[in-house]
Amino acid sequence: MITTLRQTACLSCGGAGLELTPDGQVKCKFCGTVNNLPGIVCPRCECVSAADAEFCENCHGVLSRTCPACHTKNWSGAALCVHCGRPLDTLGGLIGRLQEDTGTRLNRQQRESVELKALEEQAAERRLDQLRGIDQHREQAQAEAMAQRAVRERQIINVVVVIAVVVVIAALAVLALGWLR
Questions:
Q1: Would strands 26-28 and 18-20 be described as parallel, antiparallel, or unpaired?
Q2: In what helix (H) or strand (E) does residue 65 lie, and over which residues does it extend?
Q3: Looking at the structure, do residues 76 and 58 belong to the same domain, yes or no?
Q4: Distance between CA 149 and CA 141 in Å, rounded?
Q5: How many other C-beta atoms lie within 10 A of the C-beta of residue 169?
Q6: Domain membership flag for residue 93
Q7: Residue 21 falls within a domain, yes or no?
Q8: pLDDT of the residue at 91
Q9: Which pLDDT tens digit goes with each residue over 114-170?
Q10: Residue 74: enclosing H or E segment and its boundaries?
Q11: 3-class DSSP state of 153
């Protein structure tokens, strides 16, 4: 069941006159007390959703926004972060960056440029190390293949030498038998 602020009674006076203020608090228009509801109030349709809900049950609007500067979770109707006070919307963040003085902006850009260059150099060094490793592996495999080929060639030469010796011995035996007769 979807509950709206108009249907919720004030915890202090019991009246059904709760209103959502721009800072996300729920105040009673009769007694003026701030009510802490057990859920999150949607700034668009004023429905009360579960405390851990990320989207409104009624209009499916976003109920919380994360600050781009300090990553604190804020109520979606808030304009500024409750932790660092910076604007929560992207446009506000960009306007804040544009309002920085030129020296601060240039220093920040230079620092970011140096950091980016260092990261690129580290990535390039890692790629070079990988290529070197591949080359070493290839050279090692080629050396092993050459060693195996040399062993096979020596074995073939040994077999040929043995056959040649056997042929020479057989030829000498035939000659010796021919002289003995």
A1: antiparallel
A2: strand 64-66
A3: no
A4: 12
A5: 10
A6: yes
A7: yes
A8: 57
A9: 999 999 999 999 999 999 999 999 999 999 999 999 999 999 999 999 999 999 999
A10: strand 73-75
A11: helix
Residue 12 lies in a domain: yes
- If you compute the radius of gyration of the chain from its CA atoms, what whole number of angstroms results? 42
* CA distance linking residue 26 with residue 12, whole number of Å: 12
* Spatial CB neighbours of 157, under 8 Å, sequence gap ≥ 6: none
Write out pLDDT tens, residues 37-96.
Answer: 777 778 777 787 777 777 777 787 777 777 777 877 777 677 778 788 877 766 555 555
CB 129 within 8 A of CB 121: no
Boundaries of domain holding 22 = 1-62
What six digits make up the tokens of 110?
A: 């230079």
DSSP assignment, residue 24?
S
Contact between 26 and 37 under an 8 Å Cβ cutoff? The reply is: yes
The answer to whether the CB of 41 falls within 8 A of the CB of 48 is yes
pLDDT of residue 93: 52
Cα separation, 35 vs 28, in Å, equals 7
Q: What is the DSSP letter of 87?
A: B
- What tokens appear for 13 in the block? 């006076």
- What's the predicted TM-score (pTM) here? 0.40
User: What is the C-alpha end-to-end distance of the chain, expressed in Å?
Assistant: 124
Tokens of 123: 């990535």
- Reduced to 3 states (helix: H, G, I; strand: E, B; else coil), residue 47 is strand
